Amino acid sequence: MTRTAKDFFAPLAVGAPAPLREIPARPSRAIHFFDPGNEKMAAKVPDMVGTVDVLLGNLEDAVKAENKEKSRQGLVDIGRATANLGGTVGPTQLWTRVNSLDSPWGLDDLVTLVTEIGDKLDVVMVPKVQGAEDIHYVDRLLAQLEAKAGLDRPILVHAILETARGVANIEEICAASPRMQGLSLGPADLAADRRMKTTRVGGGHPGYLVRQDPERDDLGVPQYDGPRTTYQQDLWHYTIARMVDACAMHGIYPYYGPFGDIKDTVACEDQFRNAFLLGCVGAWSLHPAQIAIANKVFSPSVEDVAHARRVIAAMGDGTGAVMIDGKMEDDASVKQCQVMVALADELAAIDPELKKQYDAIPDQHSGTEA
Ligand SMILES: CCC(=O)SCCNC(=O)CCNC(=O)[C@H](O)C(C)(C)COP(=O)(O)OP(=O)(O)OC[C@H]1O[C@@H](n2cnc3c(N)ncnc32)[C@H](O)[C@@H]1OP(=O)(O)O
Ligand SMILES: O=CC(=O)O
Ligand SMILES: [Mg+2]
Q1: Which-ligand-closest: CA of 42?
Q2: Residue 30 and which of 3, 217, 228, 335 are 20 to 30 A apart at CA?
Q3: Taking every annotated instance into account, which residue ranges of this chain make up the domain HpcH/HpaI aldolase/citrate lyase (predicted)?
């Protein structure tokens, strides 16, 4: 049975910090993955602080089995030595992706990281989550470790949606703990688990398409061999939309995951933008080149912010209907605009360049009451 409303927010261990009642909307446009055991990548981390919203020390897939301990220790060293990273000190959060709960490393990852750098760790990403039982396990263990380490704020939990069972159990995963911060789509493992027939890491597929109807001749006979335009579809639309609804319903945050074609920055931007438009707040960055793409896509454009502010100003108390540039705006569309402006304000607070751009938008108050 799940916990009752009475004890849902009670700490799960004596001496553990109280769970948060609300998950803070901290900017997390790019969750940048690095292998803490890779000297070249690790050396880049100090200079990345302040340029990216989240730095994530990845211990799971993409780290060779023989390097697991080295990567774990590398993250401890980075957490201890890097200024202004993680905790409440600066704009760049420190996350980790631990090994899966059924692996030989998952337990030691959690025990070591919380004990050694728990005060720096903001979020633990848990891969291959199948259901609420996985989150319950991590929830209790984190509480015990936090109490032992004397931490004064709870570490949050982020689940990767990368199994068919995980997708089927998505609502119970989101609701499993007040630590739940968000979900990411894991298209590579999810494709394998679902037996999808794509070998790509995220992104589209030229075979997943719809085709224009055939032209007809003068007698109305379809010309099946004639030229017909095809339109590539988004393989991930269903899962992302499902994830966005589940997260919104539970007050947590949805993210697009990895885009593996590092050189195809154009398609990466498109995939990230689809996710942004559907409601995601960020995406993973696997290579330094993807950080700027995520920062750009997951920040509202100056045009959108200008329009949103204009609608809000014209709508006064937010009720009724007005015409702006030939379009009707009302109580519902003003709420859409408030979402855009709230995000812009959050980002401007940590991104001076964006702040400059948003501050330069001239005040516009136009519109006519219907
Ligand atoms: C698919 C399911 C998943 O689980 S996705 C998440 C797991 N995968 C990952 O975390 C992959 C992380 N990224 C990487 O391993 C590398 O970026 C890959 C994709 C292998 C490309 O590396 P490489 O061939 O070295 O790229 P490059 O020559 O263009 O690198 C230029 C310099 O940048 C460095 N670099 C590379 N990636 C990162 C990174 N993620 N974070 C920090 N630094 C990175 C490289 O080491 C290289 O450094 P240097 O200039 O030679 O000193
Ligand atoms: O972990 C991510 C994935 O796509 O699998
Ligand atoms: Mg995966």
Answers
A1: 1
A2: 335
A3: 33-200
